Amino acid sequence: MSRNPRYDILFEPVTIGPVTAPNRFYQTPHAIGTGHQMPHTRAAMREVRAEGGWGVVNTGYCSIHPSSDDAPLPYSRLWDDEDIKVHALMVDAVHRHGALAGVELWHGGGGSANRLTRVTPMSASGISSNSTYPGWISLTSSRPMSRQDIREFRGWYVDAAKRARSAGFDVVYIYAGMGYGPYQFLLPWMNKRTDEYGGCLDNRVRLMREILEDVKEAVGQSCAIAVRFSTNELLDVPGETLESEAHEIVSMLADLPDLWDVKSADWSVETASARFSEEGAQEPWNSFVKPLTSKPVVGVGRFTSPDYMVSQIKRGILDLIGAARPSIADPFLPKKIDEGREDEIRECIGCNICVSSYHDGVPLRCTQNPTMGEEWRRNWHPERIPPGDPEQSILIVGAGPAGLECARALGQRGFTVTLAEAGRELGGRVTIESKLPGLATWARVRDYRTNLIQTMANVDVYRGSELSAQDVLDSGCNHAVIATGAKWSAEILGTNGYPMGGFEGGGVFTPDEILAGAEPEGPVVIYDFDHYYMGSCLAELLCKRGLAVTIVTPANAVSAWTFMSNELVRIRERMLDLDIATVFEQYATGFSKGSLTLASIFRSHDVGSIDCGSLVVVGIKTANDRLFRELNSNPDRIANAGISTVRSIGDCRAPGTIAHAVYAGHECARTIDTGDSLGRFALERPLISFKS
Ligand code: ADP
Ligand code: SF4
After folding, report:
1. Per residue in 585-644, pLDDT tens?
2. Is 199 exposed, middle or buried (0-12, 13-18, 19+ CB in 10 A)?
3. 646 CA from centroid of ligand 1 (Å)
4. CATH of the domain at 332
5. Which of 62, 142, 423, 550 has its CA 20 to 30 A from that of 677?
6. CA distance from start to end of the chain
7. 534/609 Cα distance (integer angstroms)
8. Are 204 and 182 in contact (CB under 8 A)?
9. Distances (CA, A) of 499 to 494, 602, 614, 627, 634
10. Considering every ligand atom, which ligand is closest to the CA of 657?
11. Which residues pair with 459 in a beta bridge?
12. Would you state the pLDDT for residue 419?
């Protein structure tokens, strides 16, 4: 297939200072959870993006000096010459595919706690940022930088830039955003200096300008110098000559950098999940930049639609289409557009499981792309997969995310596949959950897979086919894969925090029942100890049906786990907007005659109650594994039926996120014929060096 000429504009080269990007697809700097310790994993994760057609591929944040240490979060570093070769591995991998490699030089200033290095953090005026936000509290504040510190600070950038050039990078970033180093000098509320680096905007911009000039002089002949600048906070600060200080800063530095990379100051806004933002939501704080500079501008916006990308270019918002999440979900997005295969794009669903992996300090996981993070360790490629034996037939029972991914990947391998689904609709939980407020994009997990499956002659799909153990035995398959999912139970927690018996009787509902259309009587209490999205999504759903809703939870926040997916604050805002009441740090201990009894999680004798018409329990999911257990109860029967293996995958094996289910489906498809569910599992090993 050939490219739709409508998208030609996306494949135009873009000059960035002394280098040229082969097209407009730009993987912006983003953390991938490998830090400095996993160079092979990192190189492979970046390489696959270059192979997939991204014209520029960047590192995540790369510290220039031990005074900028974000441990235990995984960052990379260029602290001395020994650090160069770790980066060269990635640069060479990216260059193999004709893409440019960029490095995001980062100094956190007062925004890095230096937990590992124990260097006293430094900032413009020693003012701590985010000190009221528990996730960011560190037990030390920063010290104000002296003029000597500033001289050294500038020198660290130059040293790191030279190392970056030695590693082979084509683009060198100066990170002036998100509360970090040079950005703190720009902010009037962080910079209270009375010397030439503080006060008027000219003075606050001075350090930025000096670093840019220094780095340009040092490496600007061969490397493009990019600025990553957070705009939205300063857009709210009125300027003296222009509309805002953000406008003024961009116009003051306009053509000094070779590239402007513009973004929000708040990561939870920039990476807002699909529940809280649309594609292209950053446009209001990106669009003012291009008219103020002749240099190319890049920005993100969870862009997955090529038409939307074209419109960003044609309307003069951006020159380069920046992406983190869309490039994670589909490293081959540009290639697919180039080859006229838009239908095959694995669109990011905006769930932010990837963000949570970074917070977990592990290589990225992605709901849509099960190979992400496994490229080097398990030798998994997002598009290629070893061929299988077409003579081998595989029966998959259940077409949720696990069964669909398994069928798609087995079909791609060339096996003879039968997928049986009890319901009329495919997609299992994603079809159901995508009807919850804000989760429509989650149906992409189903659509990507069903689109491909329907083109595969070797995959037969049967809807409305609830299979029994006997059906499986009679099927004549060589392998059976049971992907029958899980269901929510009404079991609750005891006052010791462990699950105990559930509530019986009328007025008690599970999420499955609500999602199947049950109409609880109001007022409704949602007792949430799942702590992810379901409790707050149901609250929103029921509230929009006109019911009064209260969320009761043993946690101290609504959807407490969503701190990990950068959604916690947005969810709380939404609950407040909808007048959804909350009761925190309470166990539910009993429910009868419209009264829910509660006990404090701290002092179980501290009891209370809430009157309500109905109770929705959101906590435990139990595996739908009856079919799997029944089959396995008689191994001889399986053998006599000619079935070599029976495996369970996804929620039926162990209930979890959709990402777990997709991963399980993919893993099963890759290993169905080897019988080895782990396979290659390469380990990164620390290099032992001797102290000089
Ligand atoms: P997962 O997330 O693990 O993919 P889901 O709950 O999303 O699990 O999907 C499981 C699917 O399995 C559902 O669509 C359900 O209708 C289907 N299913 C359950 N039992 C059977 C069965 N015996 N035969 C066919 N399909 C089944
Ligand atoms: Fe997109 Fe979710 Fe994958 Fe992140 S984990 S890239 S948000 S689909």
Report:
1. 999 998 887 899 999 999 988 889 999 999 999 999 999 999 999 999 999 999 999 999
2. middle
3. 16
4. 3.20.20.70
5. 423
6. 58
7. 23
8. no
9. 6, 17, 21, 25, 31
10. 1
11. 417
12. 98
Count of all residues that appear for the chain in the document = 692
Q: Is 461 among the domain residues? A: yes
The answer to the question of residue 424 being in a domain is yes
CA 544 to chain centre: 28
Longest dimension (CA), the chain: 86
Residue 164 lies in a domain: yes
3-class DSSP state for residue 44?
helix
Q: How far is ligand 2, taken at its centre, from the CA of residue 248, in Å?
A: 35
What are the two backbone dihedrals, phi and then psi, of residue 85, each rounded to the nearest 5 degrees? -70, -25
The residues near 550 (Cβ < 8 Å, ≥ 6 apart) are: 523, 524, 525, 526, 580, 581, 582, 583, 610, 612
Q: Whose CA is nearest to atom 8 of ligand 2?
A: 348
Q: Per residue in 395-450, pLDDT tens?
A: 999 999 999 999 999 999 999 999 999 999 999 999 999 999 999 999 999 999 99
Confidence of residue 686 (pLDDT cuts 50, 70, 90): confident
Domain count, the chain: 3
Q: What is the DSSP string of 567-615?
A: -HHHHHHHHHHTT-EEEESEEEEEEETTEEEEEESS-TT-EEEEE-SEE
Question: Residues 107, 31: one domain?
Answer: yes
Relative to the alpha carbon of 429, which ligand is closest?
A: 1
User: Domain containing 476: what range?
Assistant: 393-485+624-671
Residue indicated by tokens 């162990």: 654
For 267, the token pair is 């990561």
DSSP 91: H
For ligand 2, whether the C-beta of 328 sits within 6 Å is yes
Say yes or no: 78 and 67 in one domain: yes
Q: Report if residue 692 sits inside a domain.
A: no
Rounded distance between C-alpha atoms, residue 592 and residue 687, angstroms = 63
Residue of 54, 568, 38, 58 lying closest to 271 (CA atoms)? 568
Residues 476 and 522 in one domain: no
**Amino acid in position 307:** D
Same domain, 634 and 651: yes
Same domain, 572 and 424: no
For residues 367 and 74, give the distance between their C-alpha atoms in angstroms, rounded to a whole number.
21
Top mutation candidate among 352, 359, 374, 663 for ligand 2, by most atoms within 8 Å of CB: 352
Same domain flag for 402 and 456: yes
Task: Answer whether 167's CB lies under 8 Å from 84's CB.
Answer: yes
Of the residues 353, 355, 444, 533, which should be mutated to test ligand 2's pocket, given the most ligand atoms within 8 Å of the CB? 353
Alpha helices in 127-171 (DSSP H): 147-167
* Dist CA 274 CA 148 (whole Å): 45
- Give residue 137's pLDDT band: very low, low, confident or very high (50, 70, 90): low
As a whole number, mean pLDDT of residues 48-52 equals 98
Check if 173 is active-site: no
